[in-house]
Amino acid sequence: MVRKPKTRWFDERLYPHVRQGLSISKILFRERTAHQDLIVFENPTYGRVLALDGIVQVTQKDEYVYHEMMTHVPILAHGRARRVLIVGGGDGGILREVLRHKSVTHVTMVEIDRAVVDMCLKWMPSVAGKSFADRRTNLLIADGAKFVAETRERFDVIIVDSTDPIGPGEVLFTERFYRDCKRCLTAGGILVNQNGVPFLQPGEVPMTRKRRGKSFAAASFYMAAVPSYYGGLMALGWATDDRKATDVSLATLRRRFAAARIKTRYYSPEIHRGCFALPAFVAALAAR
Ligand code: SAM
Fold this sequence. Notes:
This protein has about 290 residues and is α/β, with parallel strands linked by helices. The chain contains ten helices and 13 strands. The radius of gyration is 18 Å and the shape is globular. About 45% of the residues are buried. S-adenosylmethionine binds near residues 168, 169 and 172.
């Protein structure tokens, strides 16, 4: 009898009592970088998957959801974004979406781990495409917290595409970091950040709301459904002093989206309007 080869599983254990298993068809790369454990493997459902310190970061098949929502919501809400800062985002997905806005003239990307950029370019090239070679891209390999504390550059939108608040990403969830981001934003600038899955990470919403609320007049959240960030809707942090930016009319969003001439697979002006409507339990967490 020919024995079927045993299926190998990637076990994501972000939570104590719930975990996510992805079958591994093939491990393409694995190393302990200077900052974190990095693996790229193939899964029949998600395609190629990048995980850092055992946590899924980006998958080929569903990355468009998160990257479109973290990028087009702030940029189209702002309406005049020219200079964008990305903190983290080593896979290049956010960078790709930002550069699709021809109105954006300059993107600085501060990623702490060069290996993430190199390995994603090598093993998941569909995510970044040619974004790192775009003349508007300025890639810095550094700690994002140190960068915003020291830079003299100013930005209209800051997108914090970080790992979770453990390891190198922890510093990107502090009051000091949000205060420094505020210092780097132009008047009416917008900061957005990866803010976890509230059903399984309920503490992250009140924590970041309090910490961002000290530096921004309008600190809230918007929601997106990212299949590989399991546990329900994901919260994305939103912070600005321009309260109007949180409530841009559908007509204006449709006009700006049409002018940007961008084809998307998740984002739409209607989703943009709807994503700020928080589920009651998330609104309660944000009001804590
Ligand atoms: N979309 C993913 C998510 O929502 O969890 C995040 C993807 S991206 C790969 C996360 C990036 O943040 C990683 O490349 C990691 O190296 C980077 N990172 C973590 N801490 C950082 C820091 N302090 N400064 C700059 N980049 C950092």
